[in-house]
Every structure is written in structure tokens, then in C-alpha cells.
Amino acid sequence: MQIFERYERQVALPEIGTEGQTRFMKSRVLVVGIGGLGCPASLYLTAAGIGTLGLVDNDIISLNNLQRQILYTETEVNQPKVLFAARRLRELNKNVHIEIHPYRLDKRNAIDLIKGYDIVVDGCDNFHTRYILSDACEKLGIPYVYGAINGFEGQVSVFNYGDSPRTYRELYPQEEELCGLNPEKNVIGVVAGTTACVQATEVLKIIAGFGEVLSGRLWVMDLRTMTSNIINF
Quick check: pTM over 0.85? Predict the structure, then answer.
């Protein structure tokens, strides 16, 4: 089939093949937050041929976003992120259906928004939204691919997946303490790209059923030393 010619380099991998690619094209993935993590994760998922990609964000593009939020350009500053992210992704792959949700995910809308998708990708920049995501995904039984960055460091895990699913609350039980903090947002752009690529990889692993998913495990890395570790929890 001609459609598979586009993806021939990944279809040729025995871990994926035509069956895995077909699964990609039938899947529905929601990316919450189209910023430093959401932009590269969305690009790679779109390039891989995910069937439907949902984008959630109520923010506008600012000049200081451009250092790491690689879907946007200087001419789009002060414009809504989801509109221009969707346009760029549609230009990359017309076969992927892009759905936009130009509002903030909160406790009131989380369940209704998430329940139509197979997997949720965390592109958030605050603890409060992550707890909401974790609770909603746990209730719905939907895998939640978590990612976070700071400075030169990044981390990724997968919640609500596998025989012994874990949650964000189990990794970070101190909700009140964390939500009372103002997370430091200083970061080098490449750490966002590196972390988001790992998140996108976890999504593809879950869909196609290959490799060892980061369920119950936290992958952490530091680009200053080029070291990474996996912590079981």
C-alpha cells in the first residue's frame, strides 16, 4: 500500500512492521500543553503517523517560547498556540487528523476531554495540572506519559499502564507541598527536545507493543554530564 511507503523506514523494523504501523494509524493520542515538551512530542508523533492527535492549550505564543517551542515562528508571536501548532502539523502529515482544544484542562473538563483518547502525553509546566491528569487517567484507565524538565535535566515515566499500574501520586505523594511551589522554568531548549523524544517513544511502544515501557520506572537524565538512570518506584 502506498500509505506505508511514507513510513517504510520504521515499518521495516521487526518491532513495528505493518501491524504496528496500522496500530499507529488507528490510535488517538492527546497532548496536554503545546510548549517545550508538547511541540517536539507532537512533531514526532505526527511524523510517525498517529491517526488522531489532540492538542490542548489556551496560551498564546510569546517571543521567549521560541527558544524551545519548535512548532512556532517569529511571525506567529501573540497568536494562539493550538491554531499554529495544528497548521504546522497538518503541513507535515496530511494523513494525521489534528483536533484542537483551545482551553485549559482543569478538574471540570478533564474527564470529558481525555475519555475520547487512547493515551495522554504530559506537556504541562505545573504540578497542579499533573495531579488532575493523573486522577482523570487513572479513573478512565488511560496510559499517561509523564515528562518534566528543568535546567539541563529531564525525566519521563508512564502511569496507569501494565499489570501493576502506578500513578503520579505514588511517585509524588506530596501534592499540597508541590502545588504551593512556583516551579523554576529556566531550561536549555535541547533538554525539552530530548525529553519529549523519550515521551514520544513511550507512546509508540505502548501502541505497537514493543520494548519495555517505563511503567513503575522513572527515567532521569542530565545533559551536562550525559548521564541517565532509571529509578524503580
Answer: yes
CA 82 – CA 67 distance, rounded (Å): 18
Per-residue model confidence as pLDDT tens digits over 109-157: 999 999 999 999 999 999 999 999 999 999 999 999 999 999 999 999 9
Please state the domain count of the chain: 1
CATH code at 11?
A: 3.40.50.720
Q: What are residue 34's phi and psi, to 5 degrees?
A: -105, 60
What residues make up the domain containing 54?
Answer: 2-232
- Angle in degrees, CA 58, 67, 75, rounded to 5: 65
Question: How far is residue 132 from each of residues 1, 56, 136, 167, 179, measured CA to CA in Å?
Answer: 41, 14, 6, 11, 12
Distance from C-alpha of 148 to C-alpha of 150, rounded to nearest angstrom: 7
